[in-house]
Amino acid sequence: MKHLRSLFDLSIDEFHDILNLADSLKQKLADGQRPDLLKNRSLALLFEKASLRTRVSFEAGMIQLGGAAIYLTSDVGWRERETIGDFVRVLSEYCDFVVCRAISQATVDQLAAYNVLPVINGLTDQSHPCQAMADIMTMREQCGGELKGKQLTFVGDGNNVARSLLKSAAICGMKFRLAGPTKFQIEAKLVQRVQQHFGILDFDQSPDIPAMVRDSDFLYTDVWTSMGQETEANERTASFTPYQINAAMMKHAPTHCKVLHCLPARRGLEITDEVIDSPSSIVFLQAANRLHLQKGLLVWLGMQNGIIPSDEVK
Ligand code: CP
Ligand code: NVA
Which ligand 1 atom lies nearest to the CA of residue 57? Predict the structure, then answer.
């Protein structure tokens, strides 16, 4: 069974197939078409953390594709009333897919291990694959379809979003740089695994902001304190303050450089109003593409897992 536990679940070709499907569904929607490729199919949403974009784009995406989404609240007694195995086996009798936003990557992996329905990672401590794929879709649009050789620089914490972007950059042949304090950089083990898995990675990370930012086609940032790290907020704010994306930092970047943020943003911390609301910012295009990417992903997983026949997808 095909899942999306992380981007390691995809080959380079599969990653691009999903993006191409997402592009095509986006174009169809712009043309007023909402093909009901997931008619009568249902998606469960199991979220251990807050969400606007991921939850609503999956729900709206299912509606547009003719199916339905069911947001599971605490009433289902997740982790309280029965084992994960019993839970997911029962869920698979009612639903065709599940999106799980989990505190720990292990939870998503455990759900998937039963192989009873496709599991989609809606963010964990380790990764945020749907976000990174929508970001690649957005950057591709900015570059007329080709990202090979372009530089994406992540400024800040080597967190779940940065880690998924690292994999996505490898897949697309982009250069990936991270500007951040040594303590919060991406660990060498992951970098090696990405290199081995995808066979290509042009990567560097350093606290040296001008060196990392200088050749960027895209600058990306995220919150300094992710969900679940609230007790570290003071230490993190102190460490990351020099890494705010502001007008002074933008002077180190080429004038054509675009700015991304997965949102929600802490305006005035990791990014200033001046930058996030400037013409260089593409943050709302990113948020919009979450919908299209998720639709492409659901249709692709539907075909891969025999939930919908491939010949229905033109
Ligand atoms: N970027 C993102 O995943 O947003 P939500 O936390 O609102 O889903
Ligand atoms: N790194 C952030 C991303 C939110 C979409 C977090 O995990 O809270």
Answer: 8
